From TrEMBL:
Keyword Transport: yes
Family: Belongs to the bacterial solute-binding protein 1 family.
Name of the protein: Extracellular solute-binding protein
Keywords, sorted A to Z: Signal, Transport
Family annotation (InterPro entries): Bact_solute-bd_prot1, SBP
Residue ranges crossing the lipid bilayer per the database entry: none
Length: 433
């Protein structure tokens, strides 16, 4: 991996306050290179209310800019990630797209595919907290405007926890195992946990967060710079994941279950009462709303708790794992695409984003517009974090992150050990050096 890529990755694992948070959503498949008044825009808010909201946002921008045509493509998150990866390989990307930051962004910048927004969007950039902005900067320049940044954790059904007699959410991995046992003892037709291992990354989040809990920040910083995963804490992370897997807490067919697409996805199972909890990002309430007939998701039954501590681990208890999404502009996009991205970050659009529970906005003017109490609580968690480590597959880029995710998926399938995950990750990292 190039030094610049590692530097961009390190920027995200930072001590400090994050002022706002992130989301997930998605549609169509046109790409850049058209006329100067046409903007192609890809996002992942493919469920309501996000899909309809973004369609209206595009129409409003067109009304304010006569002659401009915004072609919107909403798609499932994994579909969007795959299509963007293919587009970056061919050099044919949409004018405006969701950029996940870290090592991925650094690669895009190095290839000359992503526009520098430092000067063109300086007013918008100035509103964003340094901790929220860092993951989308390379060599001191800003290449995307983060509109949503947040933290991972367990979303759960309060009613099911009450049925199981769970009065306190788990703070350690041993307590999490106890909670799983209590949920099983209810004898209901729902499983304790859903996981979309079919998409790999939802399962990988268990390993990422276990590493954040098992490894000190100094170890994480050093490993990110050196791409060396030999510290025993990484093996400990895999052993922690094994501890969870051995309780057999997951939904039937979890190895092929998608993360967020449809009622039978991991998020859909939680939203429709088929499981008691799920490890997911801050975008979960908005995703669940789009997967229920009444558009409310779990509603008032929604609870959240942070990933438990690993007993004896070296991680800071106040450290968190998270990430976000940012609007980037392709180098080949027309200038009006920059205006559109600035509009997407405007007070009005970010406030609507918050009101629709689509994530945690980074524009300070939108924080008070969050309507979901669970999301509002996450703002405090994010702001009080000692640091927020970016999701590892984004942090390390597609080669190392992809190898890591593949190995973790095999671990969930019982086909790889904790040591196998470390070995596969190190092998991919060595090839990148």
């Amino acid at each position: 991996m190039a030094k610049r890529t590692r530097s961009a990755a390190l920027a995200v694992l930072c001590v400090g306050v994050l002022t706002a948070a992130g989301a997930c959503g998605g549609g169509d498949d046109s790409s850049s290179g058209g006329d100067a008044n046409t903007i192609t825009w890809w996002h992942n808010s493919n469920n309501e209310p996000g899909k309809g909201y973004y369609e209206q946002v595009a129409k409003d921008f067109e009304a304010d800019n006569p002659g401009v045509d915004v072609k919107v493509t909403a798609m499932a998150h994994q579909d969007m990630v795959d299509k963007l990866a293919a587009g970056f390989q061919s050099g044919d990307v949409p004018d405006v797209y969701m950029e996940r930051g870290g090592g991925e962004l650094a690669d895009h910048v190095e290839a000359g595919l992503t526009r520098d927004l430092t000067e063109d969007a300086s007013e918008e950039i100035a509103k964003i907290a340094e901790g929220s902005l860092a993951g989308w900067q390379v060599d001191g320049k800003t290449y995307a405007i983060p509109y949503s940044v947040g933290v991972d954790g367990f979303w759960y059904n309060k009613d099911y926890f009450e049925q199981a007699g769970i009065e306190k959410t788990p703070e350690t991995m041993s307590e999490l195992v106890d909670v799983i046992d209590q949920l099983k003892d209810v004898g209901a037709d729902w499983a304790p946990i859903s996981v979309g291992a079919g998409d790999k990354w939802p399962a990988a989040h268990y390993w990422y967060f276990s590493a954040v809990r098992a490894c000190s920040k100094d170890v994480l910083d050093a490993s990110m710079e050196s791409m060396d995963f030999s510290d025993p804490c990484f093996l400990r992370a895999g052993e922690t994941v094994e501890q969870v897997i051995e309780t057999e807490p997951f939904n039937p067919g979890f190895l092929t279950t998608p993360g967020q697409e449809g009622a039978s996805s991991a998020s859909g199972l939680l939203a429709t009462g088929k499981v008691a909890m799920e490890l997911q990002g801050h975008w979960e309430p908005g995703v669940m709303q789009g997967l229920t007939d009444d558009g409310k998701g779990l509603g008032e039954r929604t609870g959240w708790f942070p990933f438990p501590q690993v007993e004896g681990g070296g991680g800071d208890p106040a450290g968190q794992l998270g990430g976000g999404d940012a609007w980037a502009v392709a180098e080949t996009a027309p200038d009006v695409a920059v205006d559109f991205v600035k509009y997407l970050f405007s007070d009005e659009v970010q406030q609507g984003f918050a009101e629709n529970d689509m994530g945690l906005p980074t524009n300070p003017a939108a924080i008070d517009s969050l309507s979901d109490p669970a999301l509002a609580d996450l703002v405090q968690v994010r702001d009080e974090a000692a640091y927020v480590a970016l999701f590892f597959d984004t942090l390390f880029g597609p080669s190392v992150g992809g190898a890591m995710n593949d190995a973790i998926a095999l671990q969930f399938a019982g086909q790889a050990s904790a040591q196998d995950v470390v070995d596969a990750t190190q092998q991919a990292a060595d090839q990148e050096k």
